[in-house]
Specification:
The chain is of the alpha+beta class and about 850 residues long. The protein folds into three domains: about 50-340, PAS domain (Beta-Lactamase, 2-Layer Sandwich), CATH 3.30.450.20; about 400-555, Reverse transcriptase/Diguanylate cyclase domain (Alpha-Beta Plaits, 2-Layer Sandwich); about 570-840, TIM Barrel (Alpha-Beta Barrel). About 50% of the residues lie in helices and about 20% in strands. It contains 25 helices and 27 strands. The strands form five sheets. An eight-stranded mixed beta barrel has the order 18-19-21-22-23-24-25-26, surrounded by four helices. A five-stranded antiparallel beta sheet has the order 2-1-5-4-3, sandwiched between helices. A five-stranded antiparallel beta sheet has the order 7-6-10-9-8, with helices on both faces. α9 (about 440-445) runs antiparallel to α10 (about 445-465), α10 (about 445-465) crosses α11 and α17 (about 675-685) runs parallel beside α19 (about 705-715). It is rod-shaped and about 225 Å long. It starts with a helix and ends in a 10-residue tail after the last helix. It binds ligand C2E. The site of ligand C2E has 22 residues, from β19, α14, α15 and β23.
Length: about 850
Amino acid sequence: MAMTETTLLRLQFLGMLALVLILTLGLGTYFTLHQTHSYREESATLEATILGEQQARLASSLDTLHDQLQQIRASTEAVLKRDIRQQVDQALQIAHAIHAREQGRRPEEEIRQLIVETLRPLRFYDGRGYFFIDDLAGNCVLLPTAPEREGSSLLDNRDDNGHYIMRGLLDAVANPEGRGFSRYRWYAPENPQAMADKIAYVRLFEPFGWLIGTGEYLSTIERELQQQALEQLRATRIGLDGYVAVIHRDGRVLLSPSNPAAEGRHYSELPPAEQAVIRAILDASAAGGGFTRYDWHERNDSELKPRLAMVSNQEDWNWVLVTSLSLDELHVSLAKRQERLEENMRSGLLTTAAALVLALALALAFALLIKRWLTRRFDQYHADIAASNDRLRVWAESDPLTQLPNRTLLRSRLDGAILNAQREDSKLALLFIDLDRFKNINDSLGHAIGDNLLIEVSRRLAGAVRTSDTVSRLGGDEFVVLVEHLQQAEQAAQVADKLLQATNGQYDIAGHELAVTLSIGIALYPSDGSDAETLLKNADAAMYHAKALGRNNYQFFTAAMNARVREHLEVENRLRQALSRSELTLHYQPQFDLASGALVGCEALMRWHNPILGQVSPDKFIGVAEDSGLILHLGEWALFESCRQVMDWEHQGLPGLNVAVNVSAVQFRHADLPAQVQAALEQSGLPAERLELELTESVLAENREQVRITLDRLKQLGVRLAMDDFGTGYSSLSYLKHFKLDTLKIDRAFISDLPGCDDHAALAVAIIGMAEALGMTCIAEGIENADQHDFLRWHGCAVGQGFLFSRPLSAPDMAALLERRGEAAPHGAPAAALRPAAAVADRD
Ligand SMILES: Nc1nc2c(ncn2[C@@H]2O[C@@H]3COP(=O)(O)O[C@H]4[C@@H](O)[C@H](n5cnc6c(=O)[nH]c(N)nc65)O[C@@H]4COP(=O)(O)O[C@H]3[C@H]2O)c(=O)[nH]1
């Protein structure tokens, strides 16, 4: 299906719409996905950031706790030493006080006993602590926990490391101050089977050479400090609801601020959910610690909530420290910030959607505008094309000079008219019109005058017929009038009459008074042809017939005319082969000096003998040759042949002769005549001054400048130039002056009526006088009788030719004539002497 511009426009609009929609949807999808993706990424980043923050907070809290615990642990020994020193210092004060008080009042032994017994019951450290006394020999004086060993030596007493305990104590006081610490291992009260690190402080009691001291287990102090530390940790808060829990690696819960009831219990005794959490924490501890999550209930709250915890090991005490935060807080904060993000995303999406909708609306508006603009452009384009087509049609169908319909439009109207006539069973007439002797006017007065004349004639033709009739110009001076809806042939005759009358008469064209007559040929449909081609051809043939009948009339087509047209065609076809088949010959008509009767030259005239057509007159074939262009070959041949022939006679010893050769206007216009002439002269050897070229007035009437150049070139060659048929054309005088010709030939039409016809006689005399005045040779042609001859000779015509002297002769006859005349001195023999030669008839 052919695509109309409406469909095209619609498709363009829909295409643009689809494109815009696809783009909008694509962009919308892209931006939505992009923003969703960004939101997710930001959300994840946010969560990671918050989690990171919390983890950092837990980690930093743990670091602080570890530092605190480390400090506490590091202070254990110092605390222990400070405490036992204070105790021993008090014991020593007591001993000194007793000794000071009782010295001199009691015996020394009693005083000893008093001091021992005073110190024996003294206890401290929750009853764990006691004082011991040894002498410098290593004997035990007081040992409240094992009195049975009092009085015995403890010098060799060793701990599980092999350390001599007593000797260590003695070493401790072996300094000027008599005091010092000693470290050893001893059976711990909570576990009598195993020894534990213990530090003792001893002071020398000089009065009796005693060591008074006490000792304490490091583990005991450490335990206390641990308890303190746990209490400190219990009070520690991380953030809003973060706290610290401590689990011993053996599974005991040491500190659980959210569930104090669990403290001191092994995790296996706790509810399964809690067990699982603690197991996970212990697993994390075993793996070196780290972050973990679990669900745990808050204090006084049975609901389990997610918590983030960091697990870390306190290696020295086998503690697992757990700092934890409620993830609820994190979730709430995250939710808030995610909400803000979502808000941003929503507003971003809304902005994007609004922008896309706006873009869509703008694109739609733009597409509509484009569509409207294109529609307008298309409309304008169509209007322009239609106008151009109209102009083209008018241009293609009309004759540019007269604005009448041209051949194309005539053909189309004729075809239509034939169809109409067929339908209506009516007749139509085609009138083929040709202006009589228009060529002469055109050639002699120039194309501009000719064109104006044609315009005027066309105006009159158009004015003479009905507007429904078609007056057309085929070209040149040929017009065709189409008359439709005829009932009788006579109506065509009436139209032809009207045309003749309308165009007959004077025309004033640029100051020239011109007379125009027409020759009209009429062909009728259907009798003279059923198609346009035939009707045109037959009307043309009828027009030729009208011309042949003397012009200025009209003729209906007859079958006989058809035969003549055919004959014309046949002549043309056969003439094409005439040269190659040597059917052409030249005859020579002698020319004589009228005063002396001498043979001065001859005119070469073409003869054609065709095996089928027989002898064909030049009047029949020269025109055909000119129409078809064949004259170019024929004329060239005549030129070369005549020059050759004249020189041939001369070479045979016959007298030298001038020769005149006819040059057609077509030949003059197209061929490079000067070059041909030069070649003919060179080839034959004929002296240039013996060749005369006969030109018709029509030759000279054309492009004057071009003609003058050609004539000059010919003159430079030295040939003579003659004007043939003088008197039949226009403006003869101006040509004569302008072109400086050598010879003037009076047309035989003016000679034939001599001397009886006064007009022709006056004209002949005028021409002879004119030639003489211009220094030209005057030749009269067609002299048939003595009266004509005498008249012309009397009035001074120099040369003549005609049947009176001789018909055109074949080359052998001409040769015979020349032979008969003996010497051929120009202007030699008298005219009378030649008269017998007239008996030598032209065999045509
Ligand atoms: N009635 C009458 N006629 C006489 C008489 N004397 C001569 N003629 C004829 O007058 C014509 C003279 O030639 P034209 O005017 O140039 O007229 C020539 C010339 O225009 C043309 N023509 C002939 N041969 C050539 C040619 O070779 N080249 C060209 N271009 N035209 C040629 O054909 C025309 C006719 O030639 P032709 O038939 O040979 O006719 C010749 C000749 O036979 C006479 O006393 N009485």
